[in-house]
Every structure is written in structure tokens, then in C-alpha cells.
Design brief:
329 residues, alpha+beta, Jelly Rolls, Arc Repressor Mutant, subunit A, 2 domains, seven-stranded antiparallel β-sheet, 11 helices, elongated
Length: 329
């Protein structure tokens, strides 16, 4: 396994060791394009304010690589948001933590004064945002959280600041919006800066106001569920996209997604999708644009007329042939 040793700082110079380890150069003080030897993708750095910087990672490594971030003298905190669709590993204080993969914890906050190791999975797309923040602007947060840690440790143990938890639903949607953007766009850098500041705002709002933010979180989650419903309605011509995909779109685990969808619409995503398909199928049957039922089931991405017929009858208590208006031209 290749090991790349580097430091985290607020400045673009922190990219130099990463680029050296990947056997390439830094472009314009902000971009590392990963050589094909190691994979496909890039790392993008931007300094947002004198006290906050961001590193966006979007890479599919084709070999196992270990990024060893050595402790530095700069008084910084590193917020690692991981929205990969698989399990990556972060090692803190000799403990391995699984991060990413939708249904696992996906946020790590690490003190720059302790070492950490990041091991992205090989042959999988890794998507993460690392925010590097000067502790001087987080004095109250560091004090409050450190006191909580001390309560959990004996006096003989060394207190090291790190946190491991979940990204809130709104932040997941923000990171997904960056994930689907192109670094080639001129607006990408200011967009990344704006998203990074919103991520911090979401985290601290939840940290300081856990109760008052709950209704807002519910509203965000309902909006996320609504977006997946609209996606299903707009894609009835294709196959069911899978619960994993829909849960990721909503920014939550599969189990939570299924529960919330059922509460919102009193049915499962799959049954909802089939019902919408049948409604669309009914429109096609009555459109007069098709010469056979076979043409229609292909339009719905079905291969068996018997399946379409049974589902159609379940919903409308009629056979598709009874509603079929044939194109006789």
C-alpha cells in the first residue's frame, strides 16, 4: 500500500506534499489532477477566509493508498465530510472508523495536533469535503466539546479532541450539489466556498440548538422525501432506481428513508413507483400512438406483458386491452 505523508494548513502550500506523493504537480495553487497511474479524479483546494479553507476530494483510486496526515503546530480543526457510496477508513488514535456508505457515520472532526490516516477504498468513487479551520474562531465550541470529552475519560488518559458522527440531512444535500458540479465551471470555486460556510452553519446550529433545530430538520427531511417522489414520477419510463440510490438522494440511511416515505405517502417507494408507472401506462394506452401492447410495455421498460397486465388489473380492475386505443395509421 502506498503511503502519502502530508500536513494540513490553511494555505495552498499544503497541496505540495499531496501532489508529490501522487507524482504530479499542483495546478494554479488549487488543483491536483490525479494521474491515471493512481486513478481518476481530482483534489481542489480553496481558501475561503483567512481562517477557513476547504479541500474537495473527488477521486476513484485504482490502487490502495494511505494518506497519513501528520500532526502540525498550527492550531486547527479538520472537519471531514464523507459522502462516498462505500466504506472508507479514518484512523484516529490507533482506532479505525468506518466512514461514508450512506448508512454509516460520515463526519469526523479531528484536531490538527494529533495524527490521522485516511484510507479511501480502491476502485470506488470517493467524495469528501475537508474544512480546515483556525481554532481561534471556534474557542467556545472547542471548550464546550473538550469538557464533554474530559467527562468520559479518566484523569490518566490524554485528552485528544476528535468527534465522529453524522452529517445532517441538509448538509448531505449541499455536498451532493457539489458532487454533481464540475470543477471546470468558472462558478465552481465560489460555489464550493458558499457550500462550505453553509456546512459549518448547519453543524453549529445543530450543536448549540439541538432542540430548536429538530423541526427544521424534519422540514428538510420532508423536502428531501418530496424530491425523491418527484424523481420517481419523472422517471416512470425507466426501471426502479433502487432504495440505495433514493436514500442517497434524500441524504439518509435506507431504513430511515423507507420509514419516512411510508409516513409521508402511506406506501413504499417501490409500490408508489409501480402505481405511477401504471398511471403513465394508462395514458399511453389511450394515446392512440401505439400499434400494440408490446410497444407500450417496452416504453415502460417492461419485457413481460403478463406482468404489466397483472399490475394494471390490480390498480384499475381492468385489463390493459380494455383501455387500448390502437394506432391504425
Amino acid at each position: 500500500m502506498k503511503t502519502i505523508t502530508h500536513l494540513s494548513t490553511l494555505f495552498p502550500s499544503s497541496l505540495d506534499k499531496l501532489a508529490e506523493g501522487l507524482e504530479t504537480k499542483v495546478i494554479n495553487n488549487k488543483l491536483i489532477s490525479v494521474p491515471k497511474k493512481f486513478g481518476d479524479g481530482c483534489l481542489f483546494f480553496t481558501q475561503i477566509t483567512p481562517n477557513i479553507s476547504a479541500l474537495f476530494i473527488d477521486v476513484t483510486f485504482n490502487t490502495e493508498i494511505k494518506f497519513h496526515r501528520i500532526s502540525g503546530q498550527d492550531d486547527l480543526l479538520i472537519f471531514h465530510y464523507d459522502l462516498s457510496e462505500h466504506v472508507n477508513i479514518i484512523k484516529i488514535n490507533n482506532m479505525d472508523y468506518e466512514i461514508g456508505a450512506f448508512d454509516r457515520l460520515d463526519l469526523a472532526i479531528i484536531d490538527n495536533n494529533i495524527d490521522s490516516i485516511f484510507k479511501p477504498a480502491a476502485n470506488e468513487r470517493t467524495v469528501a469535503i475537508r474544512l480546515i479551520i483556525n481554532k481561534n474562531i471556534l474557542t467556545d465550541f472547542v471548550k464546550t466539546y473538550s469538557e464533554q470529552i474530559k467527562e468520559q475519560k479518566t484523569t490518566s488518559q490524554k485528552v485528544s479532541f476528535y468527534h465522529y458522527g453524522n452529517i445532517d440531512s441538509n448538509s448531505i444535500l449541499l455536498i451532493q450539489s457539489v458532487k454533481h458540479s464540475s470543477i471546470k465551471d468558472l462558478s465552481f470555486e465560489p460555489f464550493l466556498k458558499g457550500v462550505s460556510l453553509k456546512l459549518l452553519g448547519n453543524f453549529f446550529n445543530k450543536f448549540y440548538n439541538p432542540d430548536s433545530s429538530s423541526s427544521k430538520i424534519r422540514e428538510i427531511e420532508n423536502t428531501s422525501i418530496e424530491k425523491t417522489k418527484e424523481y420517481l414520477q419523472n422517471n416512470v419510463h425507466g426501471p426502479f432506481p433502487s432504495l440505495t440510490f433514493l436514500a442517497a438522494m434524500a441524504g439518509m440511511s435506507e431504513s430511515k428513508y423507507k420509514d419516512l416515505f411510508k409516513k409521508c405517502y402511506n406506501t413504499t417507494p417501490n409500490i408508489f413507483f409501480v402505481n405511477e408507472k401504471m398511471k403513465y401506462g394508462k395514458k399511453l394506452l389511450k394515446s392512440g400512438n401505439f400499434r400494440s401492447l408490446t410497444e407500450i410495455i417496452y416504453e415502460l421498460n417492461y419485457t413481460k406483458l403478463s406482468y404489466f397486465t397483472s399490475k394494471y388489473y390490480e390498480i384499475f380492475n381492468r385489463k390493459p386491452s380494455e383501455d387500448f386505443v390502437k394506432n391504425r395509421r
